[in-house]
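Shipment paperwork, digital attachment
Item: protein structure file
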Amino acid sequence: MAALVGMEIFAWYAHKYIMHGWAWGWHRDHHEPHDNTFEKNDLFAVVFGAINAGMYIVGSLYSEALWWAALGVNLYGVLYAIVHDGLVHQRFFRFVPKRGYAKRLVQAHKLHHATIGKEGGVSFGFVFARDPLKLKAELAAQRKAGLAELRDSAALQ
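Attachment content:
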């Protein structure tokens, strides 16, 4: 469970400082409209999946604790695929939640995509989502301060 929860912390950090930082070249197409089935951004899943496979292998040979941590990381990856790729970006199924936490997740991630480019932004986690009204206020403040350029479709009222 600690690895599962810890992955959301790692994912937030990696998304904000790696994907929106030095690895923007892989992540950029995830933020731009396209009709492709796959994105360069999907390479992150390949890299993280390979690391996870290595954790299972080393864990099974040398450390039971590492094997269990690999399981937590793996479960997070499944949650990520269902929530982010499936629910939010509708890559696997078409369902738009009308209420509850699922709606909040979708709103928070759509606000993440409200920025143009890698600068600024909100909601870098994948499973935890803050209140969309607070995220809108944060985006408005970033725009006013010149820290983020927002899409015309970003309704912040």
